[in-house]
Amino acid sequence: MKKQRRIQTTVSKGSGSIINEEDRKRMIDPTVKENSKNVSEPERFREIKTLITENKIKAAITLCVEVLNDDPDNADGWFLLGTAHLKMGRLFEGVAVLKHAISLDPNNAIAHYNLAQNLSILGKFDELEAHLRKALALQPDFAECHQLLAEMRKLTSTDPLFKTARSIAQDRSAPKWKRRCAAFAVASVLDREGKADHAFRFLQIANAQVSPNENALRRFETLAERSKAFFTPERIERLSIRTVEEPAPIFVIGMPRSGTTLLERILSAHPAIGGAGELPDISNMVYSLDQVHSGSRYPDVLEKISPDLLKAYSKQYINRLRSYSGKTSYVIDKYPVNFLYIGLLKILFPQAKIIHIKRNPLDVAISCLQSNFTVEHEWAFSFNGITRFYTVYAGIMKFWERIIGSDIITIEYENIVRRPQEEIPRLIHAIGLEWDDACLTPERFKGKIDTASKWQARQPINSGSINRWKRYEIALEPLRKEFSRLGLI
């Protein structure tokens, strides 16, 4: 732990320098046995990359340390060590190590991009630009760099790099992932410059590069219907565990792109509340519950397992929150689709607060179409997918509000940004805390923000994103009609 704290302190002071010789020695553990010297360097690097890809990060770090014990100036070893730290969430350590890797090999384009990506999570927008431009100088078709440069407001339509991104987006022979990133970059620039019609054409190119995942959509739909059939107030009360531990979770739920990141920043500005970002733990827990009893799946399996197992699941999650809590009494988990699991949340965490943030469905839709989500959100790349997923969300939330509505704090995004002095104190008091003025200035937050709204979430509270869908009113008309037909607007 001392190594991590020292490196974090060095980086967070904003010196901007690479780690020095003393830092480097601290990062290499001389006690690690050199048991892989008989393995060639390329083989070791292939193994490290495989471990990182498979999310076996601790094993990857161990091998990196062995490589660096053999060769302390090995740039590739430092690059992979930095990448492993970043994937593990150790951003300050990862940034410091990647800076050192770049000092040894300034021509590693991926190292520059990885460093810029994580500087963006830490809010260091000015510092990241130089690394993105260096990466693009080394590799002009590095489409992820174009996209991040555009998202961080560092690219304009007069920049020669914009023309490169546009060419990649329009190149039908380019790989789909590359076209997608480049097209999102172009659309972002054109949207910011008020050229919505042109921007939407590139949004169409970007979103067309992702194939719909029918199985995933059906899983969401089936899970929602099974939950409606299983959960009742009486069953939740009977299965609920009685153990109450700190920190208490605050679950911020809603549609992706509904303002969950802004809400987390507002709440975590309070000294009694910590923020954990988007934790997939509850979703993973449901997957685990599907495996524990032959013939029973979630949520029916909750009737088949012992109270002790439920307590173990609860304790495991609370222990995870403790790594984010410091001295706070509450920790926010803003994984938006936890709205599917509210019944389980009430059973496992009777002390939890559940905050539902609502936003204009059409603003949510256009924001989804402008976001290059991970593979877990394939529904967000088409009108049909957005409509079906939103239908699941609206339906299950109506169900939860009917059976446990008094336990859900509901707030509207539009009210937060229009009347923060009224809405935010009301929310803080609903949680049961005393007011703190820091909640009105979340832009001062210095921690990490690892979502699609990295740039927006660091701006002062403002109403500039209300009714953004109207810029694309003609293009979104088919979606608006379908939402209206389904009673979603």
Q: How would you describe what is shown here?
A:
- The chain has two domains: 1-106, Tetratricopeptide repeat domain (Serine Threonine Protein Phosphatase 5, Tetratricopeptide repeat, Alpha Horseshoe); 215-485, Rossmann fold (3-Layer(aba) Sandwich).
- Helix 8 (125-138) packs antiparallel against helix 9.
- 56% of the residues lie in helices and 5% in strands.
- Strands 2-3-1-4-5 form a five-stranded parallel β-sheet, with helices on both faces.
- It is built from 23 helices and five strands.
- The chain is globular and about 65 Å long.
- With 489 residues, it is mainly alpha-helical.
- The chain has helices at residues 2-12, 21-27, 41-53, 57-70, 75-87, 91-104, 109-121, 125-138, 143-151, 160-170, 176-192, 196-208, 214-230, 233-239, 260-268, 281-289, 307-325, 342-348, 361-369, 383-404, 413-418, 420-431, 477-485, and strands at 248-253, 273-275, 330-333, 353-358, 408-412.
- The longest helix has 22 residues, at 383-404.
What's the N-to-C terminus distance? 51 Å
CATH class of the largest domain: Alpha Beta
Query: Kindly state the mean pLDDT as a whole number?
Result: 89
| Quaternary structure of the protein | single chain
Q: Please summarize the sheet with the most strands.
A: 5 strands, parallel
Label the structural class. Answer: mainly alpha
How many domains make up the coordinates?
Answer: 2
The counted number of beta strands is 5
Q: Regions with pLDDT < 50 over 5+ consecutive residues?
A: 1-38
